[in-house]
Structures are given as C-alpha cells and as structure tokens.
Amino acid sequence: MHFRLSGRVARHLICRILGLAAALGAFACDAHAGQGTVAVAANFTSTAQKLAEIFERRSGHKLVIATGSTGQLYAQIRQGAPFDVLLAADQHRPALLFAEHQAAAKPFTYATGQLALWSPDPKRIPADGAAFLASDMDGRIALANPRLAPYGLAARESLEAMGLWDGFRDRIVMGQNIAQAFQITASGGVSAGFVALSQLQDAPAGLQGSHWVVPAELHTPIRQDAVLLLRGKDNPAATAFLAFLTDPEGCTAVRTAGYAPAEGCP
C-alpha cells in the first residue's frame, strides 16, 4: 500500500525527527519562517553578512541585505524603499525616522565603533600610541573629515584630548570618509592613520600592520543604532533578527568584527 504525505505534514514530521528547537521563535520548521530586507550602513556590511549567515542557519528565516551610506538609505526609506530594518552608522537618522513616524519602535544601539591608530608597517605603532603621536612631530597622519564622518570626529576629539590637535592640524591628510582614510594610510603616504578597528579585522594579512586602539574615553562614542521600520512591524524575520543582535551568538559576532556590541550583551 502506497501513500503520500502532504508537504505540510511531511515537513512537520521531519522537524520533529530532527528535534529542532525554536530558540528565536522562528526556525525552519516554523510555518511562519519568512524573509526580511535589512538596510545596512556601508561600514557594517561585511559584519552584517556574517550575522545574516548565522541567523539564517539558526532561524530558517532569510535576509536580503541592501547597503549604502546611512544618508542614502535614510532618503530611500523616506521615499518608500521596501526595507524592514535599518542598521545605521549613526544615531541621528534612526532617531529622525522614529520622530517622522517611519519606524515601528524606538531605535537602539546595536554596535559601537572603535577607533584605531594604524600603520601597515608591523613595527610602526607601539603599544603606547599616544606617546608615538606626541613624538611624531614631523610625520603626517590621515583621518576622515570630522564634519562628515563619525570616525573623523572621534579622531579630532582624541587628538584634542591628548593636546595634539594644534600640532597636527597642518599635517593632516583628510579623506571624505573612513574608507578613504584607510586607503591613504595603506598607500604609505602618511606615517599613520585613524581608521575603524573593524577595517583592520577585515584587512588581508599583508595589511594587518600595527595599531593602537584609541581609548574610548578620549572621544564621543561612535554609536550605531538599529530601528524596526513600519514595513517590518509584522515581519517575523525582521523582529527576530533585531532580537538576534542582543543574543549571545550575535553579540560575539559583533565583538569579533571590531565593534563593542549592544548594551545588555553577555
């Protein structure tokens, strides 16, 4: 005697046999598993892709990652772009979206960037980066434009806190963003540059060089906020992904990528 199970029944039996647990409430055996679209600031793209891989494997949900500058993504959201979640590079745009009734919940900080002084020369930057800067009276340094980039502002604030801004003011090679600051430093045209620690984590072995993580107390925190957009309000993939950002595994991935993870992370 032959019989055929319906797709729904077969799927249910397979999930029962495998003993899958719905830790996020939305695993592959969950009939409500779905797809969410996450808009991600360019600086966080590689980390978001790694997070998405872990999340999809655990939850059964699927994520579509769209990247761009935070300003571009903000403008697209206001024009009706089909995004469920925004992972911004700042706190300003998520707060604006919430104030403009474009968001379904208040934003929260999912990652805090870490500033580093870096040189591609493995022997260039000592353990005491502040002492290196104080003694490097003839060298040039690279940083992102403080008026445009959070990391650039953090670099200027750090130099000011160390009493070194005036000494370096005329010897700065400025990039429009943190990616350009990294490229300028990688070219060897400056003695060192202020970059994002996350960039060094992703750099090829030949560019690991030497670096000093700038103490966080020297500058305004580089907080990056996430927000659930109106379109994602009833999307289980979107809400589960935001919850995953404060899950132990999500926190570990963010920390490994060179960011301080969300508050409340273990």
Radius of gyration: 22 Å
The helical percent reads 25-40%
Number of domains: 2
Record field, number of beta strands:
11
Order of helices and strands: HEHEHEHEEHEHHEHEHEEHHE
Cross-sheet strand order for the largest sheet = 2-1-3-10-4-11
Please outline what is shown here:
This protein folds into two domains: 7-112 and 223-261, 3-Layer(aba) Sandwich (D-Maltodextrin-Binding Protein, domain 2); 115-213, Periplasmic binding protein-like II (D-Maltodextrin-Binding Protein, domain 2, 3-Layer(aba) Sandwich). The protein contains eleven helices and eleven strands. With 266 residues, the chain is α/β, with parallel strands linked by helices.
Task: Summarize the structure in words.
- The protein is 38% helix and 21% strand.
- The chain is of the alpha/beta class.
- The chain folds into two domains: 7-112 and 223-261, Periplasmic binding protein-like II (D-Maltodextrin-Binding Protein, domain 2, 3-Layer(aba) Sandwich), CATH 3.40.190; 115-213, Periplasmic binding protein-like II (D-Maltodextrin-Binding Protein, domain 2).
- It has a six-stranded mixed sheet with strand order 2-1-3-10-4-11, with helices on both faces. It has a five-stranded mixed sheet with strand order 7-6-8-5-9.
- Helix 2 links the parallel strand 1 and strand 2 (62-68).
- The chain is elongated, with a radius of gyration of 22 Å.
- The model is unreliable at 1-31 (pLDDT under 50).
Output the keywords.
disordered N terminus; 6-stranded mixed β-sheet; 266 residues; 21% strand; D-Maltodextrin-Binding Protein, domain 2; 38% helix; 2 domains; 5-stranded mixed β-sheet; alpha/beta
